[in-house]
């Protein structure tokens, strides 16, 4: 019996996956290095071939329909198989691997960037370290490996605690000279603070100021940890930071009896072990953080 003919190709499926992950024609066109018109035409052709509607559209962009999600699951499997085939090309002429790691701000800029830069010398890898303003998702293929504040969710995902870490309360020398030494844990509530812009907190794990009091007075709020470090260094108020980050900012730990415990999570696709290059990055991140565990957290 003759096999049925399917008028589909990988390029069409690739456009489906990228649009589902990026959400807009413009963003998908940038990733695919093409035009919005081409992306829209590819999706229309795919919908005509399938005889179903694959996307719905609203003010926020394009979202997969139920039929679209069904097709996307098969397309992701095609993507995985193509990546595996690429990984098996072990000849000297094989192209360099391209690996993207998505990270949250603190550990990405303040620790991993330096560690990875030295390790990557001599590796056959074109590397991208992407600091994302939100939780990265392996299931959306935003990155090959993600380092996040919260435990990752989703199917076909492998995840581990990368490292626990401790945060403390810090002040500048100038702030302490002006306001005097802090007398105790209750005393911190009467001082000015530096913290996050409340409606821009992308993870509840960053909401540690609320654990002290919902009524703190803020002299400065920022959307990034770096902006808060500079504001605290300038003496605007007290700040809460991971203990591994403050060495370059000449900040002083105050009220050391107050500490906040958090975790960084690392995740990747469940077929991680089938990609040697990706696996080497995964192992390096875990081993490096384990070696530096005393830098990250205080052991009881």
Automatic annotation (TrEMBL):
Coiled coil: none annotated. Keywords: DNA-binding, Transcription, Transcription regulation. Residues 8-65 form the HTH lysR-type domain. GO terms for molecular function: DNA binding; DNA-binding transcription factor activity. InterPro entries: LTTR, LysR_HTH_N, LysR_subst-bd, WH-like_DNA-bd_sf, WH_DNA-bd_sf. Pfam families: HTH_1 (PF00126), LysR_substrate (PF03466). The keyword DNA-binding applies. It comes from the Bacteria. Belongs to the LysR transcriptional regulatory family. PANTHER family: TRANSCRIPTIONAL REGULATOR, TRANSCRIPTIONAL REGULATORY PROTEIN. This is HTH lysR-type domain-containing protein.
